Amino acid sequence: MSIKLYGPRGGSALRPHWTLHELGIAYEAVAVDFKAGEHKSPAFLAMNPAGQVPVIEVDGFYLAESIAIAQYLAEKFNPALFGTPEQKAKGLQWALWIMLNVQAGGLSKMAMPKFTGVADDEGVEAGRAHVAKHLPILETYLGAHEYLAGDVFTISDIDGVVTFGYNAWAGFDMTPFPNVLAWIARCEDRPAFKAAKGE
Ligand SMILES: N[C@@H](CCC(=O)N[C@@H](CS)C(=O)NCC(=O)O)C(=O)O
């Protein structure tokens, strides 16, 4: 079987890198040259019309969107990484909640000036207020549960933890959220995370 993953070991593309390492599946990591506009080339757009990484290619099957890729890989190679149907559903509930309430309108808004080079103090403050409003909900949940699905690590923890990786650019102060920080540390301590990052 031939597996190629297009995209760096960071940002959204870290989700499928980490998932493949959790699954112990050998693959080829393919770098995409953003500066040369490779992600907008006809060859790349044929793989993903959205012109974004990550994209995975498995024996001629192409798939984009990091959460969809991670779900597909777990489904194909080891569904145990989902846990029970209830754990799978509960984990997905939280992974989606994090993406919709912490990333969208929050961390991504705070990080935008770092990517565009255009200052936007109002946008950064709105993003900060958005995260501050929602994060206590996750903090309370993780005070009672070790992982998003409950007591076991699942694919949803990969989805959720990678979202918080955007804080490297956003700079949201996480110190009032020790349960969230402990969960991130617990997940990032996994050998597969370190291997995915190339550490
Ligand atoms: N929702 C997508 C987001 C993918 C995404 O934003 N990729 C960025 C890099 S982290 C990208 O390719 N940006 C280039 C562009 O949008 O032109 C996913 O999770 O896969």
Distinctive features:
199 residues; Glutaredoxin; Glutathione S-transferase Yfyf (Class Pi), Chain A, domain 2; 2 domains; 4-stranded mixed sheet
Folded structure, characterized:
It is a single chain. With 199 residues, the chain is an alpha+beta fold. It has 2 domains: 3-80, 3-Layer(aba) Sandwich (Glutaredoxin), CATH 3.40.30.10; 83-191, Up-down Bundle (Glutathione S-transferase Yfyf (Class Pi), Chain A, domain 2). It is built from 9 helices and 4 strands, in the order βαβαββααααααα. The protein has helices at 14-23, 42-47, 66-77, 85-116, 121-144, 155-164, 167-170, 178-188, 191-197, and strands at residues 3-6, 28-30, 55-58, 61-64. It has a 4-stranded mixed β-sheet, covered by helices on one side. A hairpin with a 2-residue loop joins β3 and β4. α1 packs antiparallel against α6 (155-164) and α4 runs antiparallel to α5 (121-144). The longest helix has 32 residues, at 85-116. The site of glutathione has 9 residues, from loops. Glutathione (GSH) is lined by residues 11-12, 39, 51-54, 65-66.
Query: For the report, how would you describe the main beta sheet?
Result: 4 strands, mixed
Tell how many strands the DSSP assignment holds.
4
Structural class, from helix and strand content? alpha+beta
User: Which segments are poorly predicted (pLDDT under 50) over 5 or more consecutive residues?
Assistant: none
CATH topology of the largest domain: Glutathione S-transferase Yfyf (Class Pi), Chain A, domain 2
CATH architecture of the largest domain: Up-down Bundle
For the largest beta sheet, what order do the strands appear in spatially?
Answer: 2-1-3-4
The percent range for strand residues is: 5-15%
CA(first)-CA(last) distance = 26 Å
Order of helices and strands: EHEHEEHHHHHHH
